[in-house]
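Supplementary Text 2. Reproducibility record for the structural model of the 187-residue chain.

All settings were left at their defaults, and a single model was retained for analysis rather than an ensemble. We include the record here because the model underlies the residue-level annotations in Supplementary Table 4.
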Amino acid sequence: MNIPNILTLLRVVLIPVIVVVYYLPVGWSYLAASGIFFVAGCTDMLDGYLARRWNQSTPFGAFLDPVADKLMVAVSLTMLVEEYASIWITIPAMIIIGREIVISALREWMAELGKRTSVAVSYIGKIKTAGQMGAIFFLLATPAELDTIIGRIGYGFLYAAALLTIWSMWQYLSAAWNDLMPPEESE
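Retained model, structure tokens:
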């Protein structure tokens, strides 16, 4: 166990804390949940940086880091869908969560073929993650209202993240297309 892995585990532990704090019947719960989410998001950047900088990358960290990210995003988006009860939040949340499931399955399948590197994390994937984190941060920070400036910013980030999600999914599927749909052999 090293510091990068501890930071990743901290991110997983903070997920239920975000949920509990968000639903507390106090006026500051939204800002507090958003702040905790921000701290958890910072651990995502920090754990990878430290693992590379200190040469402390481990198989456990390589496994848990993307799982922690996906759990944090999926749980937070699910909570926001319930809280906002709006199709305008539900649709991009469905796109984002659905993409995470598809790409996780694609990566697992490509790994079985020994071609995991063809669907490695891309630059667009990193921007997409930053957009998702920004959207969730802003949407958690305010009651379920899109007519506040914070709500509008979160809404904008959410739709930008959904578009980047579709784009990055297209890139990954395109990279794997020949393995997914091999040309038929002539007889």
